[in-house]
Design goal:
This protein is an all-alpha fold. It contains 5 helices and no strands. The mean pLDDT is 77.
Length: 111
């Protein structure tokens, strides 16, 4: 469920819908500095520094990519009816979820 949410968020970011909702729409009238200031202000409003927000987003993006790869392995295992591969995919998923949880704890302790 978590990976689906992250994929949906990534899709919304690429389409620009979420950027517009947060007031970060990149139009020609705003300079790059103004857009960055808007992003930094939003991050600080959530209680994070801009640098910490970047680290958290990086970890979430990395986690989303890993989970998508694991999802693909599971899909292939189902198609091929390969129980051995399915077990490996489930083990990889559990390891990734543990890794992500530990990484998020570590990053939040850095605050």
């Amino acid at each position: 469920m978590h990976s689906l949410l992250m994929i949906m968020m990534a899709f919304l970011l690429t389409t620009g819908t979420l950027l517009e909702a947060r007031g970060w729409k990149r139009d020609k009238s705003k300079s790059h500095e103004q857009v960055e200031q808007a992003k930094n202000g939003a991050a600080e409003a959530r209680g994070y520094s801009a640098q910490m927000e970047k680290k958290l987003n990086g970890e979430n993006n990395h986690h989303t990519r890993r989970m998508a790869k694991i999802d693909r392995v599971e899909e292939l295992a189902r198609e091929q009816e390969n129980s051995r591969l399915m077990k490996k995919a489930q083990k990889m998923r559990a390891m990734e979820e543990l890794h992500h949880a530990n990484a998020m704890k570590r990053l939040q302790m850095e605050e």
